[in-house]
Design brief:
Layout: E1 2-5, H1 10-22, E2 28-31, H2 42-45, E3 55-57, E4 64-65, H3 67-77, H4 88-105, H5 111-119, H6 125-146, H7 163-177, H8 186-195, H9 199-202
Parallel strand pairs: 1-2
Antiparallel strand pairs: 1-3, 3-4
Length: 216
């Protein structure tokens, strides 16, 4: 198993958490520096034409791409512990919470979007940061409402870690990157604080990865 990674990538953070929860250790972790634009080089474009990370290669098949798809693949091929509930409605809720983060919010603040805002639209750093903070806060507001549902327990869905919690952890890390205050979102904060005490999450954290700064 080979993982294409970068310390600051929130999507790769999600996959690292899943790997840790499953007890899987990639034989090789290849760093793709998004800040230096290595994702646009021909070698990586052959792995993932979207020029995004993560990508996961297992066996002789082509690379798997997109964090949620990779995590569901890992869950199906290594089913313990399961990351989705057994009942259809529970699975839909967990996937919905995950997709608010991975599909609605996160894509708006990734490097290629921030670079477009800077180079094409000529927005200064303060304005770009405000953009990122806006979309983070929009997601947190929606998530907080969903987390008031009785289906929420110790974690996002009941008392067992699911795909939703993996995504919540990445949202919490992103909020810190962009100085977004999560205090107004008590359910979100309670759950992410609990997740931060779990080894599979702490080992996967962006600031624990090769190349990461000692602090932001």
């Amino acid at each position: 198993m080979k993982l294409f990674s970068f310390w600051r990538s929130l999507a790769t953070y999600r996959v690292r958490i899943a790997l840790n929860l499953k007890g899987l250790v990639p034989e090789e972790v290849i760093q793709v520096n998004l800040i230096k634009g290595e994702q646009r080089e021909a070698a990586y474009r052959a792995v993932n034409p979207m020029m995004a990370i993560p990508a996961l290669v297992e066996g002789t098949g082509p690379a798997l791409f997109e964090s949620l798809a990779i995590i569901e693949y890992l869950d199906e091929t290594h089913p313990n512990p399961p990351l989705l509930p057994r009942d259809p409605r529970g699975r839909a809720r967990v996937r919905g919470i995950a997709q608010i983060i991975a599909c609605d919010s996160h894509p708006l603040i990734v490097p290629r979007v921030r670079e477009y805002l800077e180079h094409e639209l000529k927005l200064d750093e303060a304005t770009r940061t405000k953009w990122c903070q806006h979309w983070h806060t929009a997601a947190l507001t929606a998530l907080e409402t969903h987390l008031k549902d009785p289906a929420t327990g110790r974690y996002s869905h009941g008392d067992t870690i699911t795909l939703a919690d993996i995504c919540l952890a990445s949202q919490a890390a992103g909020a810190k990157f962009f100085n977004v205050d999560t205090a107004p979102f008590p359910n979100f904060s309670r759950i992410t604080n609990a997740l931060a005490t779990i080894d599979a999450f702490t080992r996967a954290h962006p600031l624990k990865q090769p190349g990461a700064p000692a602090a932001l």
